[in-house]
């Protein structure tokens, strides 16, 4: 399995949610609404989920082993960091 595309949509508001990401796998399968979240121990991803009848949130799509989860997370977080670095510098106006 290869992650062939990562699209990052940064979240402008303050809070723990930093971005929403879509990944393409093997140029054939897309997973939307993966969240980049700032936790107590740093950034992590949360897979797309929905609220069940019992009130709990359950993942809609997720990796079935920790190695795959780590590979997806490291790829997404690297692309998120790249997106932050690509952000244009704020405009500074000289006072004269």
Automatic annotation (TrEMBL):
Keywords linked to the UniProt accession: Cell cycle, Cell division, Septation
Pfam family membership, one: SpoVG
SUPFAM superfamilies named in the record: SpoVG-like
Keyword field contains Membrane: no
One BP annotation, GO: division septum assembly
Record-stated family: Belongs to the SpoVG family.
Its job: Could be involved in septation.
NCBIfam families: PRK13259.1 (NF009749)
Name this polypeptide is given: Putative septation protein SpoVG
Name of the gene this protein is made from: spoVG
